[in-house]
Amino acid sequence: MATEGEKRQVKLLGATLSPFVVRVRIALALKGIDYEFIQENLKTKSELLLQSNPVYKQIPVLVHNGKPVCESMIIVQYIEEAWSNKARNLIPKDPYDRAIARFWAAFIDNKIFPSLRGVFTGQGEQLQKAVEDSVTNFLLIEEALRTNQCFAGKAYFGGDQIGLVDIALGGMSTFIKAVEKATETILIDPKKMPLLTAWMHRFCKSDGVKEVMPDPVKHAEYISARRATMISPPTAN
Length: 237
Prior knowledge:
Distance between the termini: 59 Å
Structural class: alpha+beta
Radius of gyration: 18 Å
Mean pLDDT: 94
Low-confidence stretches: none
Number of helices: 10
Order of helices and strands: HEHEHEEHHHHHHH
Shape: globular
Helix content: 55-70%
Number of strands: 4
């Protein structure tokens, strides 16, 4: 059971709609860790954020006993190690399974998110290319769910419980749907990717996840508004 002392020791600097912050909130929820959430205004970044992450000056930042930890997947792994005594393992114990989980988590950050960002910001041919890249990447995830011995036939990438890869990809769930709506594209086609579609639905409805996921309607409105601002031609003086 979380205590007020624990809450004072753990702070999370973030924004509720950030998929990277959502990852950390899911990990904290699954581990049953109480914490203070500090909402950041990224237009006027707080002194605490700038001091805690002077290199990237970005969210999320987890502050544990006064010590900052940055970058979402590094934070998730830190949470697992710092609270290893708490139930639910987020990272496999087996070295091979752990390596596979880290491989796919890196794939999500290095391949899937850049292509999603390309869809979010793209227009015309750039948008079409980013959509094609995103679909190709998601099809690779679908194939992994079908054939990889670590994932095939299991409810989650982590097996019977949510794990590292689930958090890495699942934290982006509402962002993916919001980008699809804002760009009128289909990135995850239920007919072509039935396993990934079923996994995403199951993940978003899971205890510890549904409580911290962004409201999909608000997220879609926010992404649509941001995209409209980004692609609008500059006004004449």
